[in-house]
Prior knowledge:
427 residues; mainly beta
Amino acid sequence: MMGFFANTNIGYENRYYLDLSFRTDGSSRFGKESRFAPFWSVGAAWNVNREKWWNNDASLKIRASTGSTGSVNFSADQAITKYQYNSEYEYNEVYGAQLLGYGNPALKWQNTIQNNLGLDLTLWKNKVVLNVDGYIKNTQNLLLPIDVAPSTGFLSYTENLGSMENKGIDMRLRFNIIQSRKDGFSWNVTFGAATNKNKIKNLSNALEALNQEANTKESVTGPKPLRTYQAGRSQSSLMVVESLGIDPRTGNEIFRKLNGDLTFEYDPRDKIIVGDLNPTWMGTFQTNLYYKGFNLYAILAYEYGSKIYNSTLAQKVEGSSPYYNADRRVLYDRWKTPGDITLYKRIDDTAPPYQTTRLVQDNNFLRLQTLSLSYDVPGNILEKVKVERAKLILSTSDLFRLSTVKIERGTSYPFARTFSLALNLTF
């Protein structure tokens, strides 16, 4: 990589600020036609509390910025056609070259333009601190794979075709409840919240191919629905067929088609959007309490507003046979005789269920992400044993979790509840 940049910062009477920057970066990872790209940013801030008409002990700063950034997070093989000599392809004592990848010499930088508006507010001599940021990010020239004819010897090559929009809000509210240096006592509480919505603007035909794969029989009966992508829709939309539950007469699932008709025949073309895999709101509650060497710190994490397909029910209840070691719901909660009103289909049907709204649930949770208690041993005690500093720390992670969905954890990502005891000594 090679880059050139310039920036300037202007301030006036500690009230108004203006930041300007411009840079141009070049990378050999891109095609020879577009190796360099310009990026820029403009930011401004206003310290409102520095104005003469501001007459209280609060402070307020208003911020705004806009700018562009690029990405080089991909392989150089996508821009440069590569060959490899192969000794098996020898002719007349000359080795033949094998094409390894089809490069695109016109490949450009992926460019993201972000607009941000925020404020920083403090009240009552720093007792309350509020930070709010709203943003809109537009990613252009998104690097996406393009399908090509198999006769070329390749399945796809990379092109700048996609674009995506993200917009959201980040907020943090902090209460410095107690600040008493004299008594060695302090306590603060922080509430954080964030929301983000994304929308696909353009798609490559490779993503259209992924949509077709998501509708195959193997995919629609898998442990979780594969994502499908469509311009104008969120990339994390959850799409399944609408279910009216289990028919009490037959024990089979009833599906609703897009035209409103009811049927026992599953058709992936009847999928509808039932929610989003990403939460509407997410954030943390943090508290830090200090008193005469003791420090208690805790973080509670939460998510609200997302949907999830309960793979535990699909695999461990409906996908299990009652003749083997199984969840008790396989024996007691499945349909057995005409007239049974149940959530789960016939007990003699052990085939994996189709992905429908029947097993889609709200995914809201609150969990104790971190809890730690530490103690700094007083200096007058340490002097006797020739120790400069000693700190004892007891900590744990994921101590408890409250959730609206009951599902196995750790099957697709690491999960562990940890406890640790540590002693830090400085001589």
